[in-house]
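Duplicate of #3305? Posting structure anyway:
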């Protein structure tokens, strides 16, 4: 019986020695991918450990708790948002969580953001002074030439180091990312008979005119058809872009000025993109759905309704907007 108990003790000891040795001092993985994790104020050590394991930053929450208690770190971890690489050791992760800082921060640029809105996002993160990105987009000397950067800055999540951040390099990074993301569409664009600039401008309108990804190809079909048949596009978002008025209601007087962005008065595309579209909107612009519709509107719940002619569009207005 004593031998049996001894064997159990030895087995348990070997098990925990192996378990602890596997993760205690070794990097979590070989991956250099970065993960964003938020530690809420008041989180317990157990909660923090479980969150780290869920994010695949550690392999074993139990061992990390033991490590933290052994090193008297249980109450020293700070609340906040951290960007942590997957290939760190327990000690390195503990250091990041203790000091409340990581070398990089996460910047999320939503699909459909304008240059002005990207500028605001970065200013709120204290990466630049308000207006710096707008000025750089217009006046910085880049290694590429383009009439307007609007529409060509790819919306995504980026990780940046505040200490080394520069506006010009960040704009170049967004532009280069756009070029990489749009590369698979080059053949489709060539076959469509449209230029890349036309596709980007159309995609930027689709992004702002659609509430759901599923409706984007239909919206694209309507807008391309109206453009090709020389019918006013009537995209209110182009006027919102010119006025930088994305939330307030638009009034009759907003459409009275004969400006290049007033697609109720002027034929054709606006002179530039009106947002920086994501891949679904670009895909819809390249591969629109052929439909019999010429009109669409969204009701007060955001549901889209199409019409084949003006009479049908008027009926939809009466049914869904009055």
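Output from current build:
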């Amino acid at each position: 019986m004593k031998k049996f108990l001894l064997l159990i003790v030895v087995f348990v000891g070997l098990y925990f020695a192996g378990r602890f040795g596997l993760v205690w001092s070794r990097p979590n993985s070989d991956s250099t991918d970065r993960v964003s994790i938020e530690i809420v104020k008041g989180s317990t050590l157990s909660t923090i450990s479980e969150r780290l394991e869920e994010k695949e930053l550690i392999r074993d929450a139990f061992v990390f708790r033991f490590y933290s208690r052994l090193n008297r770190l249980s109450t020293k971890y700070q609340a906040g948002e951290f960007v942590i690489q997957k290939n760190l050791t327990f000690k390195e992760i503990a250091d990041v969580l203790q000091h409340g800082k990581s070398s990089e921060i996460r910047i999320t640029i939503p699909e459909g953001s304008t240059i002005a809105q990207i500028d605001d996002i970065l200013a709120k993160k204290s990466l630049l002074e308000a207006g710096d990105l707008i000025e750089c987009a217009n006046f910085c000397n880049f290694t590429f030439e383009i009439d307007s950067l609007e529409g060509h800055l790819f919306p995504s999540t980026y990780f940046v180091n505040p200490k080394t951040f520069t506006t010009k390099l960040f704009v170049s990074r967004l532009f280069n990312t756009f070029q990489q993301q749009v590369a698979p569409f080059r053949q489709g664009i060539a076959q469509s008979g449209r230029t890349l600039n036309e596709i980007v401008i159309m995609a930027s309108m689709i992004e702002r005119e659609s509430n759901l990804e599923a409706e984007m190809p239909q919206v694209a079909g309507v807008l391309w058809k109206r453009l090709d048949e020389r019918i006013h596009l009537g995209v209110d978002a182009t006027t919102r872009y010119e006025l930088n008025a994305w939330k307030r209601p638009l009034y009759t007087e907003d459409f009275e000025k004969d400006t290049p962005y007033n697609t109720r008065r002027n034929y054709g595309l606006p002179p530039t993109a009106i947002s920086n579209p994501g891949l679904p909107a670009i895909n819809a612009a390249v591969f629109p759905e052929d439909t019999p519709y010429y009109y669409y509107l969204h009701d007060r719940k955001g549901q889209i309704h199409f019409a084949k002619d003006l009479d049908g569009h008027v009926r939809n207005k009466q049914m869904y907007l009055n």
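Confirmed duplicate; merging threads. The chain has 13 helices and six strands. Residues 298 and 304 are 4 Å apart (CA to CA).
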